[in-house]
Amino acid sequence: MSNNKINIHKIGILIAVFIAPFVSTSILTLLMILNLSCFIGKKIYDKDFNFEKTFLDKILLLFCISIIFSTAMSKNIISSLQVAVMYFCIIGFYFMCVNEIKTEKTLYLIVKVLVISALIVSLYGIYQKIAGVYTPESWVDKEMFSDIQTRVYSTFKNPNVLGEYLVLLIPVTVSLFWHYEKITYKIGVIVVALSMTLCLLYTYSRGAWLGLLLATLVFAVLINKRMLLIVGLMILILPFILPGSILNRFLSIGNISETSSSYRVLVWTSSLNMAKDYWISGIGMGIDTFTKVYPLYAAKGVYVLHAHNVYIQILIELGIVGLISFIGIIALFYKEMLNCINKKDKNLSKLIIGISSGVAGFLFQGFVDNIWYNHRVSFIFWVLLSLGVISQRLSNETLESVNNDKGNTCN
After folding, report:
1. Within its chain, how far is the Cα of 340 from the centroid?
2. How far is residue 147's CA from residue 151's CA, in Å, rounded to a whole number?
3. Rounded CA separation 223/169 (Å)
4. What is the DSSP string of 71-111?
5. d(C-alpha 307, C-alpha 333), whole Å
6. What is the mean predicted confidence (pLDDT) over 399-407?
7. Do the Cβ atoms of 230 and 220 come closer than 8 Å?
8. Coil, strand or helix at 191
9. DSSP character at residue 181
């Protein structure tokens, strides 16, 4: 009976990570609640169940406390409470993954399901490019980029959000190249990764391009520093093979005269002024809460749904404790991931590198976008954190087993 329950939990995790890009936030939240209800029920009735303790538990608790405090002090408590509940579901799902995924086989199954889901999303995005899906005028400065007719968004309704999602998962996909031994599977991984990269290019999201560039550099440094030479050569070749529309868009990065860039600077300035008044308690989570307060600080004609910078957004919503605890989560995560990579566990080090690179690129994009704006992308982010934590635990268990075997042999 216990094994059947465990299988149900694993199936629930697989379903959630697969359908996340294709369903609404409400449906995903309901699915998380269903999964968590089963998980909590198991903890109550299964006497043999032991809750897995991880290196992120204490700092995550502080982060959760900041959510509770900011919600209590919210300028729109009903709206903030709804978002807070959803975030607690996501964090609860993180703990469920950490406790239910016990083997390397299950870990890689989750990863493969994530990649298959991302491939479907990418193929749909490529189809949108071919079909010439409608692109709102607000997404492109036509005076500077008249050659951009379509920005794809696939199932995410926004090209920047699609870019965030792909930045997270492209490095994870590439890491599977080292997981498979058969050449046909390796070629398949390359084709899938290239499809996802092509879709990302068609988003014309400069923040996502920068995120992928950083993720690629991190991946190269961590896997083999000699790969930096290959990456450097690829970057030198790209201007000769990329379409003019993509090249022009990329070269406009940092051009303050371009509408989107100048708009962001004004948003950041207004948001920082807002943060100065609410840095202790935060205003509470959610778009409705932000849009209730932001107009009091907005530059003339610059009205937005978020701060276009996840770190400023966290400071505004959760206050200084929320921001510090989030930075602490990331710092501890990378400390442990780098320790695992340095231990040279061949079975999991490549996956850990893929996860670390994807998260790094995602967080880098967070300097120009609110990468938590879309809750489905936030869900995938926390799933990847859980997979990193699980990989760290399995890697340590493997190395301990090897060391014990060596000790027994010596005896």
Report:
1. 21
2. 11
3. 17
4. HHT-SSHHHHHHHHHHHHHHHHHHHHHHHH--SHHHHHHHH
5. 25
6. 58
7. yes
8. helix
9. -
Angstrom distance (rounded) from CA 329 to CA 244: 40
The overall pTM is greater than 0.90: yes
Distance CA 169, CA 162 (A): 11
Please list, residue by residue across 253-281, b when 16 or more beta carbons sit within 10 angstroms of its beta carbon and e when fewer do: eeeeebebbebbebbbebbbebbeebeeb
What are 201-234's pLDDT values in tens digits? 999 999 999 999 999 999 999 998 888 888 888 8
Cα gap 354→86, rounded to integer Å: 27
Tokens 């998260």 locate to 359
For the chain, domain boundaries: 2-406
Query: CA-CA distance, 189 to 208, in Å (whole number)?
Result: 21
**Contact between 2 and 46 (Cβ < 8 Å):** yes
Calpha distance 272→286 (Å, rounded): 17
DSSP codes, 313-363: HHHHHHHHHHHHHHHHHHHHHHHHHHHHHHTT-TTTHHHHHHHHHHHHHHH
Cβ neighbourhood burial of 21 (10 Å; 0-12, 13-18, 19+): buried
Residue type, position 43, single letter: K
What is the per-residue pLDDT across 86-145, written as a single tens digit (0 to 9) for each? Answer: 999 999 999 999 999 999 999 999 999 999 999 999 999 999 999 999 888 777 766 666
Helix (H, G, I), strand (E, B) or coil at 239: helix
Helix crossing, 259-278 with 310-342: angle to 10°? Answer: 90
